[in-house]
Design brief:
This protein is α+β, with helices and mostly antiparallel strands. It has 18 helices and 40 strands. Strands 12, 13, 16, 17, 19, 21, 26, 28, 29 and 32 form a 10-stranded antiparallel β-sheet that branches. The chain has a 5-stranded mixed β-sheet with strand order 6-11-10-8-9. A 5-stranded antiparallel β-sheet has the order 14-15-18-31-30, with no helix packed on it. Strand 8 (119-125) and strand 9 (133-138) form a beta hairpin. Helix 6 (255-287) packs parallel to helix 8 (317-336) and helix 9 runs antiparallel to helix 10. It is flat, with a radius of gyration of 38 Å. The termini are far apart.
Length: 1027
């Protein structure tokens, strides 16, 4: 690169040192494309008039002396300066949406234009991490004359709102100046009034929308935030009940009054939600008429649209359709901006991405709700499928089903329109993206877009594609997708990755396949495009893609069940589990070493024995109480699994040993490096692995299980200590048989043959050590140099060591001092206490042609965890994951009652539960008989059989102390036409007017009393009259 002095020419050029600008080339300088980042300081800090950039090129594999030159001349525009710039805001503080502010800027300077700037843009943001909301653009440096109102600042920032003024010179370069202003929230009553009158005819918003005035954008943004805050403050049914119960206690309200209050709150909330829905729809319809003249204006309206579309359950079908229209118009506008820089285009795309994500999820929500309603109506029609029962109600149900189906298809059509707009936006970003340049990322709460262009031969250098959250993709070797180096189908690859934290594909075609799969993870889409812009079809790829799909937005908890093992010659305690078809099966078993973890069980045995013995003998590693002997040496668990019947140590369908051996983990992950190619100098794929399989988990994929229906599995656990396995007194026969008579696939693992690395922890090997796989009696350890891992074994060692260090740090933080009981050993067999966790997962992809989630070509991988599912798939489309935690039970038939004297806890617990159940059953039956008597309404004893006009009276008695009465009560009921004589409240079969009662009576009168006006109550026994 050469600089030309102000009054010089080509021959006066001066070379700029390579080292001063090469680091600013984000693509490097050895490829066919180069991109310089916008701010290369060395170009801005000198006095050169212009620059020459020269490119030297020669054929690959030939001598550099046979080269050619190409050069280009360019001039740069010096960036404006804000050193003396100043912003004034009047007034200096105000109230959100009420105070009108005026923003004025001065003091900006430009080397070429002086103080004559082409335009000024005004905006604000609530936090430094928020995107800027632009509300005004003008050739003048003031917003005077505009009705400018701001939202409130964040309370965490003392309600400070950041105001920005951006000054543009005639070449499009700009500089910014910031200032903070205090904007406090409006009073709740004012907010309520604002929301209630926001869209009134003739109001400010209505006038702006009717005039298609862009000034409505900041107003709509503020109102959208108010709507969202009000929606966030909505109480759930449980919260309403809790709130009204507290109020009833505080103010001594009756249950009837509490119920009325609860209904009033629910009615108010429903009314407010209807108003919010109407307001959002009104704004969306109005924004459809507004045509932003430039990208800056479009960014301002996008910020408002983002606030208005944030709540998917408050966007009607009409609002969604309006949003699709707006996005199509905005994409056309964005396409016309040919001179827009790549960075400005990406900034604009970020705002549009947020709107697209919000509305796409709203379409998915609407479609799912419509499908559920249609299914419910269809089920109710089937339940009454009788010609004699085809009533008016059923006609309404059939009509409702048709409406729900129409809504579903409309939501799907709107989603597809939004998807096309999104793809068009991605295409525009790609059009101005240079190969090797930094990736373009547009992130929002409900949609992430990542776009990158890479030379095909460099894809293997960094095969990890991070999509957002904990979701990522490990790509296969590029040769399996695009061909080998000498025969590639494209010289560069464009990678498009999308992440949606919730499933938007909620419409399904049940006739085309199973559609009941519940997606409880991110949904990610991955595409490749070649150098001509066409999508690269990928199906049945020989090496699978590793998808790591985030589940942190969903419930990641897994039920833990604690139990103990029994000797090999005695029955196992069985756990039973139901596994769905096309799902994986994960069993995690961990040993418990500390008595404090099972203190409740130990206390029970203490109470049974009455005494506890202890000494300071050499058996300090064993905790034994009464007939229970806890094993505290590290053990190896043997897991036996069988479908539909209990397994034994010789008859089972599947089995594994835990913790896993290092060689097992290596074999499990060997698929990662199964493909290698000549002249491929890239590192093995396994070196890009950032996690390891759980060493305490057995995994059985859907391919291994081959289930056609929901199947019940029995799981039994046995154990051996490592000293038994490797000592001189170890059993002659191996406890796990390698033969299996079952018809299902058997996975048999080899027993451990190495000494445990340390007590109370599973075996680990630090990286840099090697294990002699052939030697069954010893371990060869070699300390290696501190260098990066070079293969799968070393990478696993490295990750294992990192995990071990983290666990040691955590254990030291959580370490507690406990008083352990050391008991004289009375038995050679010690029971290992374990916790078992079982979960199931599935990997699915969206079949767009058939509108179903399918599992074909995908399976659950060995790196799956409850918080992130690992999927192995041989093609590209939209992917998701299902996750389930089936009920984990214990088979008591085989464990609790085989030997009652050896199972005192389970036996005593079951007897106690059965006794309590019988007693509760007797009590409940008596209460049911009383309820039969108390139910219904009783005719008054003084009713005249000739009277045919009936009134039903319901009388509530309070719940406070002494609220009931034993007095004989009479009353006179008065209407605007006539009144009754004194009538008596009595019932011969049941007590009335008791505390907390609800008594019903039927009163007969000769004719209608008219509109009821009042009731006079008389307590006859106490001669007291109350009006």
């Amino acid at each position: 690169m050469y600089g030309v002095p102000p009054r010089g020419n080509y021959f006066d050029r001066q070379e700029i040192p390579y080292s001063k600008w090469i680091d600013h080339a984000s693509t490097g300088v050895t490829g066919p494309h180069m991109a310089l980042i916008p701010t290369v300081q060395v170009l801005a800090d000198n006095d050169y008039k212009g620059y020459y950039l020269s490119v030297k090129a020669w054929r690959w594999g030939t001598s550099e002396s046979n080269f050619g030159f190409a050069r280009i001349y360019f001039e740069i525009n010096k960036k404006p300066k804000n050193k003396y710039a100043k912003i004034t805001v009047e007034p200096k503080s105000g109230i959100a949406f009420e105070t009108t502010f005026t923003v004025t800027a001065s003091g900006f300077e430009d080397e070429e234009d002086g103080e004559n700037f082409a335009s000024y843009k005004f905006g604000f943001r609530r936090d430094v991490t928020d995107s800027i909301t632009w509300f005004f653009e003008s050739p003048k440096s003031t917003s005077k004359g505009r009705d400018t109102r701001f939202p409130d600042g964040l309370e965490s920032r003392q309600f400070k709102l950041d105001i920005i003024v951006r000054a543009y010179d005639r070449n499009g370069a700009f500089t910014d100046k910031w200032k903070s202003v205090t904007v406090t929230p409006a009073q709740p009553s004012e907010v309520e009034n604002i929301l209630a009158t926001a869209t009134d005819a003739g109001g400010l918003v209505d006038k702006l929308l009717m005039a298609s005035d862009l000034q409505v954008a900041p107003v709509a943004d503020v109102i959208g935030k108010f709507l969202n805050e009000e929606a966030d403050g909505t109480l759930s049914t449980e919260q309403i009940i809790e709130t009204t119960t507290q109020m009833a206690t505080e103010y001594n309200l009756t249950e009837a009054a509490r119920v009325v209050l609860e209904q009033e709150i629910q009615t108010q909330q429903e009314s407010k939600k209807d108003r919010r829905i109407a307001t959002r729809t009104h704004f969306m319809e109005g924004f459809r008429r507004i045509k932003p003249p430039n990208v800056e204006a479009m960014q301002g309206t996008a910020a408002a649209l983002s606030s208005l579309t944030k709540k998917e359950d408050e966007l009607t079908e009409d609002a969604q359709t309006a949003a699709a229209d707006i996005m199509e118009e905005y994409m056309v506008n964005l396409e016309r901006q040919g001179t827009l820089s790549a960075d400005d285009r990406e900034e604009a795309a970020t705002g549009l991405t947020e709107v697209l994500g919000n509305v796409m999820h709203a379409c998915g929500y609407t479609a799912e709700k419509a499908e559920l309603e249609a299914t419910s109506l269809a089920d109710s029609l089937v339940a009454t499928n009788d010609s004699r029962m085809y009533t008016y109600t059923n006609k309404n149900r059939l009509g409702g089903k048709r409406v729900s189906i129409l809504i579903l298809f409309q939501a799907k059509a709107t989603f597809e329109r939004l998807e096309k707009s999104m793809n068009k936006m991605i295409g525009l970003l790609s059009k101005y993206k240079v190969v090797g340049e930094k990736k373009a990322v547009a992130e929002s709460e409900k949609l992430n877009i990542t776009l990158e262009k890479t030379e095909t031969q460099l894809v293997n250098q960094n095969p990890n594609v991070y999509v957002g959250g904990m979701t990522s993709v490990l790509l296969p070797k590029s040769q399996t997708v695009f061909g080998e180096a000498d025969n590639t189908t494209t010289w560069f690859v464009e990678t498009e990755a999308l992440r949606l934290p919730n499933n938007p594909f909620t419409w399904t075609n049940a006739s085309a396949g199973s559609s009941s799969m519940k997606i409880t993870s991110d949904v990610i889409t991955l595409k490749f495009r070649n150098d001509t812009g066409d999508e690269v079809p990928v199906s049945n790829n020989p090496q699978k893609f590793d998808f790591f799909i985030d589940r942190s937005n969903y419930d990641t908890s897994v039920q833990s069940v604690r139990n103990i093992t029994w000797p090999w010659n005695e029955p196992m305690i069985y756990h039973t589990i139901l596994i769905q078809p096309e799902s994986s099966f994960h069993v995690r078993v961990t040993q418990m070493f500390e008595e404090s973890d099972i203190q409740d069980y130990v206390d029970y045995l203490d109470s049974q024995s009455g005494t506890v013995q202890s000494d300071n003998s050499t058996h300090g590693n064993v905790t034994e109480i009464a007939s229970f002997f806890m094993e505290t040496e590290p053990v190896q668990f043997y897991v036996f699994i069988r479908a539909n019947e209990p397994p034994t140590t010789t008859e089972y369908d599947f089995n594994c040993t835990l913790s896993k051996e290092f060689i097992e983990v290596v074999d499990m992950l060997s698929y990662m490096d199964a493909y290698s190619f000549e002249n491929d100098t890239s590192s093995p794929r396994s070196l890009y692995m950032t996690d390891i399989p759980d060493l305490d988990t057995c995994l059985y994929s859907s391919e291994e299980l081959q289930l056609n229906e929901t199947t019940l599995f029995y799981i039994g656990i046995k154990h051996r200590t490592y000293s038994e396995l490797h000592g001189s007194n170890s059993p002659a026969a191996a406890p796990v048989s390698t033969s299996n008579t079952a018809t299902q696939t058997t996975m048999t693992t080899t027993q451990a043959t190495t000494t445990p690395a340390r007590k109370k922890r599973r075996k680990r090997w630090g990286w840099g050590r090697s294990r002699n796989r052939q030697n069954s009696g010893s371990v060869t350890t070699t300390v290696g140099p501190t260098r990066p891992p070079e293969n799968l074994e070393e990478q696993l060692n490295h990750l294992l060591q990192q995990q071990e260090n983290e666990e040691q740090q955590n254990s030291q933080k959580d370490k507690k001092k406990t008083n352990k009981k050391k008991i004289i050993p009375e038995s050679a067999y010690k029971q290992a206490v374990y916790t078992i966790q079982i979960f199931s997962a599935s990997c699915v992809w969206w079949d767009k042609n058939n509108d179903v989630w399918s599992t074909k070509g995908c399976e659950v991988g060995p790196l799956s965890k409850p918080y992130r599912v690992h999927c192995l798939c041989d093609h590209l489309t939209a992917f998701g994951a299902g996750f389930a935690v089936p009920m984990n039970t214990i088979n008591l038939d085989d464990s609790a009652f085989s030997k009652l004297d050896e199972n005192p806890v389970i036996f005593a617990t079951m007897v106690s539960v059965m006794c309590a159940y019988v007693l509760m059953l007797i009590w409940a039956r008596k209460r049911d008989l009383q309820d039969v008597i108390m139910a219904g309404s009783t005719p008054l004893p003084d009713n005249d059989p000739r009277d045919k006009y009936l009134y039903e009276l319901t009388i509530f008695t309070g719940s406070r102390k002494n609220a009931g009465t034993t007095a004989k009560i009479s009353f006179i009921l008065t209407g605007d036409q006539q009144e009754t004589p004194p009538r008596y409240l009595a019932d011969e079969k049941r007590p009335v007017m008791q505390r907390s009662n609800c008594d019903g009576f039927v009163m007969a009168v000769p004719k209608c009393l008219g509109k009821l006006t009042h009731l006079r109550q008389v307590l006859v026994d106490h001669l007291l009259s109350v009006i």
